[in-house]
Specification:
With 417 residues, the protein is α+β, with helices and mostly antiparallel strands. Helix content is 28%, strand content 24%. The strands form six sheets. Strands 1, 2, 6, 7, 8, 9 and 20 form a seven-stranded mixed sheet that branches. A hairpin with a 2-residue loop joins β8 and β9 (143-154). α1 packs parallel to α9 (377-395) and α9 (377-395) packs across α10 (403-412).
Length: 417
């Protein structure tokens, strides 16, 4: 079976959802391909419970992006999927509930004309015709299907199309990779545990347990956040991954999942304040922060982020600091020289060697440190929206020469929140 679309989007996380919605709203017939049984990516499958990168740096939570990112932020609050934004240091985040978010994305995507969601589906091969990608082959429970499209968006997080298309990609050595996060949902937690001096007391209990060898070192960076539901808390730990950590290896990924569950269970068993708590949800997958990155037509750099760079073809805003998590000791933040956003150019969302492939999310063309800023979910919504608009325009016959200016014009005309 060969299905025909204008745009095919690989990956149903924040970037892929935004790309698919943006393209469909431009009149394109779109396929959104996701390997899990629900959409949302890190924000659902990995239980990442805050949107970062939605707001400009500063004292007030001012939305940074026109169109979909601001629409999503506003509607999540209105629909009680998210709470009000919270300030963390120099930045703001939007706390949400992953399980509610998954069902919310179902409603938004199923209600969009021209958008077809394909869950439990993965790309396994591609068909190239010189400098164009013509077709991908997908697999769902042993059944293969062919999908042809005029344009494609790689929002897989792992730059899977770069590998399949034999295009150049980058990944830093294991010792430099951002460490993976493992998040679980806990129930039956006493409300007072995280109030007043509670977090300090918890930190002391963890430090004591680590010092006598009852808990591993990575527990020192454990973070707890209460959800909007009484008695529910999300706990996050960063995992070392090992000296040979490879986020593209089944051996490494299997070890991370097993160690993550073991670490959370150890935390519960050694914290008196959690004696009555239990794990109510494991993530479908650990939170991988970094793997392959496309080598595109422009590589966004650390300097671009720190100097608030602007570009003639800027189509999204990088508003989050460079968040380095190369160890399990917690984040190290590098803030821009001025409290404002940097541009992300359309060239960083375009494959260098293939005419009709765009990228969005954490696998765009960026250096290791620049990726530590643009990988977050709010920014991924923005790069996804830009890639979706560009894909729809290119599939509709827009030429390469006028594409950047037309994408920027389209973005400027989008409504604010």
């Amino acid at each position: 079976m060969n299905e025909q679309y204008d745009v095919a989007v690989i990956g149903g996380g924040s970037a892929g959802i935004a790309a698919a919605l943006a393209a469909a709203r431009r009149g394109a017939r779109v396929a959104l391909i996701e390997r899990h049984g629900y959409l949302g990516g890190a924000g659902t499958a990995s239980l990442v419970h805050t949107f970062c990168g939605l707001y400009l740096p500063g004292n007030e939570p001012l939305l940074a992006h026109l169109g979909l990112p601001s629409e999503v932020a506003r509607r999540l609050i209105t629909d009680r999927i998210a709470q009000e934004p919270v300030r963390l240091g120099r930045v703001h985040v939007l706390p949400h509930h992953p399980m509610l978010l998954a069902a919310w994305y179902d409603r938004i995507c199923s209600g969009t004309p021209g958008l077809e969601v394909k869950l439990h589906t993965e790309v396994i091969t591609v068909s190239l015709n010189s400098t164009r990608l013509d077709q991908i082959e997908t697999l769902c429970r042993g059944t293969c299907s062919q999908i042809s499209a005029r344009t494609f968006v790689d929002a897989s997080g792992d730059a899977v199309l770069a590998e399949y298309c034999r295009q150049p990609w980058d990944m830093v050595p294991s010792c430099e990779l951002q460490r993976p996060a493992f998040i679980a949902a806990l129930q039956n937690v006493d409300a007072g545990v995280l109030q007043n001096e509670g977090p300090i007391a918890l930190a002391g209990q963890i430090a004591q347990a680590v010092s006598i060898g009852n808990l591993p070192q990575e527990c020192l960076g454990a973070h707890f956040r209460a959800s909007q539901h009484s008695g529910e808390v999300f706990v996050t730990v960063d995992l070392p991954g090992g000296n040979d950590y490879d986020p593209l290896s089944s051996r490494s990924l299997s070890a991370i999942e097993i160690v993550g569950r073991k670490t959370i269970m150890a935390l519960l068993s050694h914290l008196p304040d959690f004696s009555n708590a239990f794990v109510s949800a494991w993530p479908a997958r650990a939170g991988i922060r970094e793997s392959r990155r496309w080598r595109g037509r422009y590589e966004l750099s650390e300097e671009d982020i720190l100097t608030n760079a602007t570009f003639d073809d800027g189509v999204a805003a990088a508003t989050w600091p460079i968040e380095l998590r190369e160890t399990t000791k917690g984040p190290r933040l590098l803030h821009p020289h001025e409290p404002k956003a940097a541009d992300i150019p359309l060239r960083s969302l375009r494959a260098a060697g293939i005419e009709n492939v765009f990228m969005a999310g954490r696998c765009i063309s960026a250096t290791h440190r620049a990726q530590a800023s643009i990988r977050v979910m709010g920014t991924s919504l923005a790069t996804g929206q830009a890639a979706g608009i560009a894909s729809a325009l290119l599939s509709g016959g827009t030429t390469d020469e006028i594409l950047p200016s037309l994408v920027r014009k389209t973005l400027r005309e989008l409504p604010t929140a």
